Amino acid sequence: MKRRNFLAALGAGFLGGCSEIGKTGTFKALVEGAQDWHRGIHRALGAGRITMAPEYHRSEVSPHFRGNGTTRVGKPEYDASRDNGFADWRLAVTGLVTTPLELSMDDLRALPQRTQITRHDCVEGWSAIGEWTGPQLSSILALAGVQPAARFAVFHCADTLGNADYYESCDMDDALHPQTIIAHLLNGEALPEMNGAPLRLRLERQLGYKHAKYLTGIELVESFDHIGRGRGGYWEDRDSGYQWYAGI
Ligand SMILES: Nc1nc2c(c(=O)[nH]1)N[C@H]1C(S)=C(S)[C@@H](COP(=O)(O)O)O[C@H]1N2
Ligand SMILES: [Mo]
């Protein structure tokens, strides 16, 4: 709606026949109020909105950040890489990108870093606050170039639970969200093995199981059909009751 029409509609709808009011400061204030109200509704509906997960103060960091799910990968290749300081670890960026990448730990540390203190909420009924540091996934995807067909980012992991590889995924809004980072530090130290060394996803607006640990690859896809059992995540594939969108 053009501004003039908007004013006319406002005048007709809210103000009835008060033609003189248009010339007063009160009218201007009413119009501005209406615009703020509209922006509020617009944001509440989600259009153009970026909601941030709460961030905390250093003094609120949990003294111990427990490990859950896989806490030891237990594969010889992983143990060898860990014992070598993950010097040969590579994060592959593949799928619907213009330039597939193989990033080393040094490559990831050379990108601009984001540090955030957030609360991790696990569906099993525990929470912990930790300080995470790493490059934003958006910077990595900017390097790789996102093809227009990409709808989801899939996160591949080094560990196997039962007899299937752990994996997770999110949509491109969450992939490009400023708090979505590929963390390599927890509370200023290299990630402990139980917390996903050397790399784990932080997807702060969603529950714990979405935060894939032991990351080996990020694949941009249009659908999940060819991955696991096609539902976008290890738990989602298993009738666990864990939803694909685990917003908090
Ligand atoms: N690769 C992998 N990522 C994983 C899991 C896992 O078992 N393997 N467990 C998930 C679950 S259920 C939670 S709550 C968190 C636990 O992270 P933490 O071990 O750092 O506490 O990791 C998530 N990411
Ligand atoms: Mo969890």
List the uncertain runs: 1-23
Q: Provide the CATH top-level class.
A: Alpha Beta
Beta-strand percent range: 25-35%
Major sheet description: 5 strands, mixed
Topology record:
Blueprint: H1 3-14, H2 25-44, H3 76-83, E1 91-95, E2 101-103, H4 105-110, E3 113-122, E4 126-135, H5 137-144, E5 152-161, E6 164-171, H6 172-175, E7 181-183, E8 185-186, E9 189-190, E10 200-202, E11 215-221
Parallel strand pairs: 1-11
Antiparallel strand pairs: 1-2, 3-4, 4-8, 5-6, 5-11, 7-10, 8-9
Short description:
By secondary structure, the chain is α+β, with helices and mostly antiparallel strands. It has helices at residues 3-14, 25-44, 76-83, 105-110, 137-144, 172-175, and strands spanning 91-95, 101-103, 113-122, 126-135, 152-161, 164-171, 181-183, 185-186, 189-190, 200-202, 215-221.
